[in-house]
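Entry 14. Ran structure prediction on the chain below.
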Amino acid sequence: MNIAVIGSGTMGNGIAHIFAQYGYPVNLIDVNQEALEKGMQTIAKNLDRQVGKGVLTADQKDTILKGITTFTDLKTGVAEADLIVEAATENLELKLHIFRDLNTYAKKEAILASNTSSISITQIAAVTCRGEKVIGMHFMNPVPLMKLVEVIRGYATSDETTKVVMELSRALDKTPVEVNDYPGFVANRILMPMINEAIYTLFEGVAGVQEIDTVMKLGMSHPMGPLQLADFIGLDVCLAILNVLQQGFGQPKYAPCPLLVNMVTAGKKGIKSGEGFYNYANGTKDAPVASKFL
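Output, structure tokens:
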């Protein structure tokens, strides 16, 4: 099976990595050649970690990298793909634009999957003429390590498409969980309100960043506190998902905290920008940032 992955950012390069690691030929596609080079460098670094831990050999690393071909032209990159996984920015209009193009360029029998973490698969499928072939394939970050794949069935997604994606996920040594197409699906419908409430707890002065994260790590056995996790996900991504939840359900409980809105507006997006609830200027999590917006 030939795989195409659209988007070479954090999720896209991780998805390309895992497919190539399990022997699937992968085309990694991005409009920006510099982004592709950066994505391939990230894959190489992550493979080096696996080699260092004894998970892979140096020869296996080389084979995996050779199994990934990069493209800046979408039409060429998806032409022979049997499964196409879109992993672009969590932006509805961008995803709809990509799927309109995929409807034209991809083989008729190709499965079109989106790695969206919250946007309706039914809405995405509606801009194609092959709704039965459109499905959500929501990987978790970091893709090579996290076992879950949330498999989202749109209104028109066929049983056969779902079966193929579930089996393919298992072939990657992942655990697929089938869910239905409602805002946020399962993972983010539960996770994002918790993160948002943690931000409100900071915003209202109940406790500081480290204190909030420590309570959740030690008291609830979470491996990472919610504010650090928000930085890891990307505060802009958290905001986008909360907006989808609020629009989809129309309930005040999903309204993003004003502190989150202000931080994203100011460009403080977490690890990706070097600063969020913590400072990452040195490449690792440093002391919490005393937000000027409090």
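DSSP finds twelve helices and eight strands in the chain. Will compare against last week's run tomorrow.
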